[in-house]
Amino acid sequence: MSLRTLERDAPSLFKKSLPEPVQLVVLCVLALVLMLADARLHITNPVRQAIATVLFPAQWALLQPLRALGDGLHYMETVQVAQSAAHEAQRQLAAMSLEARQAQELEEENRRLRALLELRPRLQVPALAAEVVYESPDSYTRRVILDKGQVAGVLPGSPVVDERGVLGQVVRVQPFTSEVRLLVDRDLAIPVLIERTGVRGIVYGRASNLGADVVELRYISGDVDIQEGDVLLTSGIDGVYPARLPVARIMVVERQGATAFLRIDGEPMARMQGARHVMVLAPWQEALAAQLPAAAELRALVAPQADAAQQAREDKSAQRRAGGSLPGQKESAP
What pTM value is reported for the model? Predict the structure, then answer.
């Protein structure tokens, strides 16, 4: 017996191995098979759960220093942010205190001047907070539904505004809800004025209002001073909207040769899409009648007398014309 049989070397049969490229391909195929089997049959889930349970204490212990470091850095950043916010709040508070004192002085001066000129006090328009619950299902109009209605005191025709400007107008009121026609709806028109120049006009919703939130300022002649970026405010002459509420900002001013009017497009100041909380204002005439009942009663008493006097003057004029048309009748002496 040869002594080589007692050697620890493996037989020559087992010394032969596959080439390295073939081994790589076999291992890749095996890995893909195992991944597909795990994805389909979830055969490794118990193993994963067991390993995760065993390693969780070690992971928790290793993460504590990192978590403590992160908490410390976050605490320092929070302290710095809080200190900066406190300094900024103190600065704003000082500025607002100065503005408040100036506003009080101006209000007192305004009150004395109005009393000196015997002007009536400035009208305070009542307002009601409401929330937009959903948009109207009608795809041919731009309307939203509010969660306040007749029970809450909402009136048809009431202006609706958000924190930016005019949103629209109430067109239909139910006991617990109300429907608001948005500013960009083609059936809504609002008298406005240009803040910079004071020129008046009328804002309409664009006819193709389903594509973009754009309004049109119509019937403005070509010689009017208007520029892109001008702000449109409510004029208040319609008796519905209080004066000087933001409406829109001019985006496009085009001079058309075929007509004497300009083509003016504006972007609404209010949020036409995504508005949530709004304020419903009482119509200006309703607020005026509520706050000036004596004036309303006086108008109610004087109006019939004025109508009677006007009717009497018209009757006298008719009798005079009829008497002058008779042939041979002499004119009476005065």
Answer: 0.55
Q: Domain check: are 110 and 190 in the same one?
A: no
Domain co-membership, 103 together with 132: no
Tell whether 298 is covered by a domain: no
Alpha-carbon distance of 42 to 33, in angstroms, equals 13
Do residue 22 and residue 162 come from a single domain?
A: no
194, containing H or E segment: strand 189-194
Q: Which amino acid, one-letter code, is at 296?
A: A
Regarding whether 222 and 101 lie in a shared domain, the answer is no
pLDDT in tens, 125-172: 788 999 999 887 776 788 999 999 999 999 999 999 999 999 999 999
Distant-in-sequence, close-in-space partners of 197: CB < 8 Å, separation ≥ 6: 224, 225, 226, 230
- Tally of domains in the chain: 2
Q: What is the pLDDT of residues 209-218, one digit of tens each?
A: 566 789 999 8
The distance between the two most distant Cα atoms of the chain, rounded to a whole number of Å, is 173
Cβ within 8 Å of residue 249, ≥6 positions away: 229, 230, 231, 232, 266, 267, 269
- 66: domain range? 18-122
